[in-house]
Design brief:
Helix content: over 70%
Shape: globular
Radius of gyration: 15 Å
Number of domains: 1
Number of strands: 0
Order of helices and strands: HHH
Structural class: mainly alpha
Distance between the termini: 49 Å
Number of helices: 3
Length: 91
């Protein structure tokens, strides 16, 4: 049964992009490989979404990529020592 699974699909795709980017860029220390992966995977996601959902695919792909980039920015902020949780730092 796929009840409500369609609602989670963009988040699942964004998480896959984020985790794979993080592995390449941070775990393996290959930032260029991570960036190239994001570009190629983002294009793949766009074309897949267009094929599957026609014109609605543009917004689906944009949401997925935007979400993945927000996950990446949040992780980078956490690594830099800032707060990325949305909560103010306690002194």
């Amino acid at each position: 049964m796929r009840i409500n699974r369609d609602l989670y699909e963009p988040y699942i795709d964004a998480s896959r992009l984020y985790v794979t980017y993080k592995r390449y860029a941070y775990s393996e220390g290959k930032r260029i490989k991570g960036y190239l992966f994001l570009v190629i995977a983002g294009l793949h996601n766009l074309f897949y979404s267009l094929k599957r959902a026609k014109w609605r695919g543009w917004s689906m792909a944009a949401f997925t990529i935007k979400t993945a980039l927000s996950f990446i920015r949040q992780y980078a902020k956490e690594r830099a020592g800032g707060t990325a949780t949305g909560m103010p730092e306690t002194v």
